[in-house]
Amino acid sequence: MTTPIAIQLWSVQDACQEDFFGTLRHLAEMGYDGVEFAGYYDKSAADLKAKLAELGLGIAGSHIPYERLRDELDAVIAFEKELGNDYLVCPYAQFETEAEWIEFAKSLRVISDKIRAAGLHFVYHNHAHEFEKLGNDYILDVLLAGVHGLEVELDTYWVHHAGVDVVPYMARWSDRMPLIHLKDMKRAPIESTEIGNGVLAVRRFAELAEQNGVKWFVIEQEAFEKAPLVSVEIGLKNLRKMVGK
Predict the structure, then answer these.
(1) What contacts 24+ positions apart, CB below 8 Å, involve 199-202?
(2) What is the pLDDT along the chain (245 residues), one digit of tens a residue?
(3) Sequence-separated (6 or more) residues with CB below 8 Å from residue 189
């Protein structure tokens, strides 16, 4: 397989807080091809771009809170273009009522139009609750069907956690999935673990994603028994073995 592998930096957020550039160097030395941002730790776009170039790291995307996308979109777009990031990801949203989700979708249409007009991609990252129903359809399906140009960074762990069969759901949106989150699941207690040390069919998900033309595999881990930097190195090595890369 030739699809590059990135790390979602939320997984190593404590290390990033302590020494952001040092952590990026450590991840590059592990063999990661790129990173997906979850904040910039007060670094400028120019400094980040230079550091990534120095380390040979690409950019899979950036998780940007919905509130910033809604309220500061011009500044967000300018920063991301200077950085060289093509994929702006809304990482999370949750609402209590159908009316609130409908208003959210309307807001995403405005955001999507502006991001795409700037030549960038707008992507939504799911958790499990987007597989609750809005009318007769999953919330995530309503968003993807109702927001022109919106793409999905499918988090396979949360799809499975929601009780949805991952493989056919991947096929449903295969042409709208430039990024995919790969993580594994412990059975007891149910929580994320290093890729290769859990029960999910990560190899199958990766194979199908590559067949569908995904641009980046993104490793993420949310629960740890080892130091996070140790765990994400284990996950990278195991995923490389799975995909023959």
Answers:
(1) 200/156, 200/157, 200/160, 200/166, 201/166, 201/167, 202/156, 202/239, 202/242
(2) 689 999 999 999 999 999 999 999 999 999 999 999 999 999 999 999 999 999 999 999 999 999 999 999 999 999 999 999 999 999 999 999 999 999 999 999 999 999 999 999 999 999 999 999 999 999 999 999 999 999 999 999 999 999 999 999 999 999 999 999 999 999 999 999 999 999 999 999 999 999 999 999 999 999 999 999 999 999 999 999 999 86
(3) none
* Distance separating alpha carbons of residues 78 and 23, to the nearest angstrom: 25
Instruction: For residue 168, give both structure tokens.
Output: 């056919």
At 179, the amino acid letter reads: L
Distance of alpha carbon 56 from alpha carbon 33, whole angstroms: 8
- The domain that holds 111 is classified in CATH as 3.20.20.150
Q: Is the peptide bond before 168 cis (omega within 30 degrees of 0)?
A: no
Domain residues for the domain of 191 are 5-243
CA distance 205 to 87: 21
Total of domains in the chain: 1
Look at residues 139, 134, 103, 137 and name the one whose alpha carbon lies nearest to residue 124: 139
pTM above 0.85, yes or no: yes
